[in-house]
Inverse folding.
């Protein structure tokens, strides 16, 4: 249905109805989300980790950095739930503080890179033409390096350390979000309600913010949950290679790398660090899969 | 057909130029004097830096330096390693061969296991087999390769003493790293295979085949698989590219002397010419693989061929 620009009352009503429909769709989606087994599993895992990351001191009395050399490489016991590492530090405490670090890396890297990519995708998709070509060719170039290699190249230039890891993973995330946002914008920008908004006198920015944005934010959000796990994995991978967060900071990847030398005498180190990392990644992947099932009608099983 | 291929080739050129520029710019933005970073010279207070810059061409505009770098790279000259003083390409060539070997073995495992799992999941869709296949792939994409590698070393080398824990020797040294590297690709390939086959199974001609009384297996192998294979080919190609990135981690876990390990070591030694050369090789291979995948997709899909002719 095409709008008659003269009948502004009907137009306003239609726009309002679009918003109402949108809100009720969202409620329905949320209900479906909580009925989806995958996403509930993911949410439970994520909440446990968030709790651990927020209150590590509540869960373990130990200092994650302080060395106790006479107590080194102890297997798990009542005193040290996950044993101790090569410097006698409590593994469980290091796991908890590591959760805080990994979640922060994932959150900040995806949020920063994702928002930049989202804005680029909105602009490229909505304005098209030169803006589109310039932005998207730049994204092609960023995507022509595998993620980890791009991150390594950036680290090679900037040096190691937490901030640079964040920058590297953030940049890696930009093109993924830009591409996805652009394609969703392209799908909605010729819809009737966008035309209506434009003919009723809104300028480009108003249309983008008030009419395009509410209809395109959900897809990048789903992408964000999936990207979150990739970001955490790349962060841990960089530290595993010795190119990420520097010791003695408790970082899962770095600790896994150190545990490699003790596989024979203290395999509990490698088990513990790898398991906590994997379960968190699994949680985000499960949530992402669940979200996709809920929001993508084609994927309904 | 030919037009599409030429078209894709032309599209790949700006990307290649762009990625070389990206690598060049990233590594030329390293803080510090480029004479020191790229030529590894210990600068003494009395050195005539201006003369050295002039001699090495570093006082010229960045664009001219980039063109020089591009021109030399095309001729196979990636500069000299700071650490070994040998040409970068010579140092990296053995690593490239070793990495290629590892990646080939992995993609072979990934295709065989991933497609089998995917076919099984589609053939027995929504059954216990489907769920097993889904779980395997969810674990495959969630477990970090470097952890799987450590677990396999612990099980196969430390506990069972069946396979060597690392290094390069005979074929037995290849098994664990190749298996580790293939896991994530198995996951992706099996998921895409399943989804693609399920879509084909909804087609009319499958219903026709079924009403002719053909068995499920025949339908799957003769009618569904050939038509559902195209997305899988694309994904296999893309996975091969991502394997190249995964090799960096796997090579470190298993002390496999490949390109990735050279690269990581070079970063730690601040051997920038080697870093630049290594990243460049990976980027070019990645772009070329993606290009080949695209072309192969067109070449193999009869529907697209007809569309082009008509």
């Amino acid at each position: 249905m095409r709008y008659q620009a003269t009948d502004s009352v009907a137009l306003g009503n239609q726009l309002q109805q679009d918003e109402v429909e949108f809100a009720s769709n969202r409620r329905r989606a949320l209900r479906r989300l909580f009925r989806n087994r995958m996403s509930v599993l993911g949410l439970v895992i994520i909440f446990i980790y968030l709790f651990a990351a927020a209150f590590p001191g509540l869960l373990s009395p130990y200092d994650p950095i302080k060395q106790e050399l006479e107590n080194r490489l102890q297997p798990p016991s009542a005193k040290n739930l996950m044993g101790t590492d090569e410097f006698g530090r409590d593994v469980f405490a290091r796991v908890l503080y590591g959760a805080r670090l990994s979640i922060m890396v994932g959150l900040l890297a995806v949020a920063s890179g994702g928002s930049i990519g989202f804005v680029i995708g909105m602009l490229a998709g909505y304005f098209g033409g030169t803006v589109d070509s310039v932005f998207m060719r730049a994204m092609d170039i960023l995507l022509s390096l595998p993620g980890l290699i791009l991150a390594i190249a950036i680290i090679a230039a900037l040096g190691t350390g937490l901030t640079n890891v964040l920058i590297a993973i953030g940049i890696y995330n930009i093109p993924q979000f830009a591409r996805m946002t652009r394609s969703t914008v392209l799908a909605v920008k010729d819809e009737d309600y966008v035309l209506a908004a434009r003919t009723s006198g809104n300028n480009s920015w108003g249309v983008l913010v008030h009419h395009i944005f509410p209809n395109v934010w959900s897809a990048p959000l789903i992408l964000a949950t999936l990207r979150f796990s990739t970001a955490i994995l790349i962060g841990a991978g960089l530290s595993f290679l010795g190119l990420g967060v520097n010791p003695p900071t408790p970082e899962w990847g770095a600790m896994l790398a150190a545990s490699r030398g003790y596989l024979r005498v203290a395999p509990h180190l490698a088990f513990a660090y790898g398991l906590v990392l994997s379960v968190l990644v699994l949680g985000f992947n499960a949530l992402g899969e669940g979200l996709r099932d809920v929001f993508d009608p084609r994927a309904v099983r | 057909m030919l037009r599409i291929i030429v078209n894709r080739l032309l599209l790949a050129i700006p990307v290649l130029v762009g990625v070389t520029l990206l690598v060049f710019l990233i590594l030329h933005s390293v803080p510090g004097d480029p004479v020191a970073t790229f030529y590894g010279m210990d600068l003494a207070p009395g050195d005539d830096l201006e003369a050295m810059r002039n001699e090495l061409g570093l006082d010229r505009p960045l664009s001219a330096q980039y063109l020089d770098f591009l021109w030399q790279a095309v001729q196979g000259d990636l500069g000299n390693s700071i650490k070994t003083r040998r040409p970068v390409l010579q140092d990296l060539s053995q690593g490239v061969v070793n990495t290629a070997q590892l990646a080939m073995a992995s993609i072979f495992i990934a295709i065989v296991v991933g497609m089998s799992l995917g076919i099984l999941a589609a053939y027995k869709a929504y059954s216990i087999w489907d769920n097993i296949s889904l779980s395997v792939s969810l674990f495959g994409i969630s477990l970090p390769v470097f952890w799987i590698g450590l677990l396999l070393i612990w099980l196969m080398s430390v506990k069972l003493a069946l396979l060597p824990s690392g290094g390069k020797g005979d074929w037995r040294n290849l098994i664990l790293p190749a298996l580790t590297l293939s896991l994530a690709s198995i996951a992706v390939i099996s998921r895409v295979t399943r989804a693609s086959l399920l879509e084909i199974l909804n087609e009319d001609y499958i219903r026709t085949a079924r009403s002719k009384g053909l068995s499920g297996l025949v339908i799957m192998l003769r009618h569904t698989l050939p038509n559902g294979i195209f997305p899988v080919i694309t994904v296999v190609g893309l996975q091969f590219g991502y394997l190249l990135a995964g090799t960096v981690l796997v090579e470190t876990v298993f002390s496999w002397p490949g390109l990735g390990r050279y690269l990581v070591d070079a970063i730690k030694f601040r051997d920038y010419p080697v870093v630049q050369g290594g990243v460049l090789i990976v980027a070019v291979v990645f772009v070329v693989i993606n290009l080949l995948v695209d072309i192969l997709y067109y070449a193999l899909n009869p529907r697209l061929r007809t569309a082009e002719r008509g």
